[in-house]
Design goal:
The chain is about 70% helix and about 0% strand. By secondary structure, it is mainly alpha-helical.
């Protein structure tokens, strides 16, 4: 029984990753296994047979890990499902809510829409990166502790299965959305024709800025009409489809983006109405900016929910 240079290099790479008290025994056993396997093949070319046997044993790092039952992954299969669930809950639920809350607080402090957007985006990027790093480190350390204590093992039970999502049938919620869009459309037109607000001098005024009828209110109304039509199609088809969700996203963009822009520019309400109703709010800039952020957030959330339901 003899070993070559390749075998000695392989054995060295394996045993140096083992505990000190196991290295000598493992080195002898591994040399004997390699030599016996080579001799058992009866090959004329000893070096070629040695290379073939070592190739079958595989990477020495993996071989040593199998000997010590040490994981070669940061997070093993036992903890990975829980890791994904925690990460999704934090990044898709807690982080957006935190970013939106901080943006609204910035608006309340008079920071303006630009400052609010910077705070929100900074929170998403900065805190998001810290959340990913912290959760990964916690699960990685937990994986190592479980390996050392020998407490690995899948403890999943059928009780952890989530409920089967109910298919969207375009029921009461869809009808309510259609009704809301139609009423909002009618309300915008009504306040223009009826001029319902009466000023102190007896003059009838529109609540919304009359100048908007020269441009920005038309896409808003078109978007509302589109949302109502998509809602009716949703009810008729008994649920969302990917194509219908695409039309919903387009209608929402036509409605939401001009409305958010008008709010950002503080041009939504009639200046004469605001001058007469001075008690409606104290900080006009904060109210407009906060409303713009809320409108955009509602639009994005609604579209995301529609696509998520359609793709189930």
């Amino acid at each position: 029984m003899s070993t070559g240079v390749l075998t000695e290099r392989y054995v060295h790479e394996v045993v140096r990753r083992l505990p000190a008290d196991q290295r000598d025994d493992m080195a002898r056993e591994l040399r004997a296994t390699i030599a016996d396997t080579i001799d058992g093949r009866g090959a004329d070319d000893h070096r070629a047979a040695e290379r073939e046997v070592l190739g079958e044993l595989g990477d020495p790092v993996r071989y040593a890990a199998r000997c010590t039952e040490r994981p070669l992954v940061l997070i093993g299969p036992d903890l990975y499902p829980a890791y994904v669930r925690v990460m999704v809950a934090l990044l898709a639920g807690v982080l957006p809510a935190l970013s939106l809350g901080l943006a609204l607080l910035e608006m309340a402090d008079g920071g303006g829409p630009g400052a609010a957007l910077r705070v929100g985006a900074g929170t998403l990027i900065g805190v998001g990166a810290q959340v990913v790093a912290a959760v990964t480190v916690v699960f990685g350390v937990t994986e190592r502790i479980r390996q050392r204590r020998g407490t690995t093992g899948d403890r999943w039970t059928p009780d952890e299965l989530p409920d089967v999502p109910r298919p969207d049938r375009g029921g009461l919620a869809a009808l309510t959305a259609v009704t809301w869009n139609v009423l909002l459309f009618a309300l915008i037109v009504w306040q223009h024709t009826a001029e319902p607000y009466r000023a102190d001098g007896g003059e009838h005024l529109e609540v919304l800025n009359p100048d908007l009828w020269e441009g920005w209110l038309w896409p808003v109304l078109a978007g509302l009409a589109g949302l109502a039509v998509v809602g009716v199609a949703r009810v008729a088809g008994q649920g969302w489809t990917v194509r219908l969700a695409g039309w919903y996203a387009l209608a929402h963009a036509v409605f939401t983006l001009p409305l958010a822009w008008v709010l950002y520019r503080q041009e939504l309400f009639n200046p004469d109405f605001l001058a007469d109703a001075t008690t409606l709010w104290e900080s006009r800039e904060s109210a407009y900016g906060g409303a713009a952020v809320i409108v955009l957030a509602i639009g994005v959330t609604s579209v995301a929910k529609a696509f998520r339901t359609a793709l189930r």
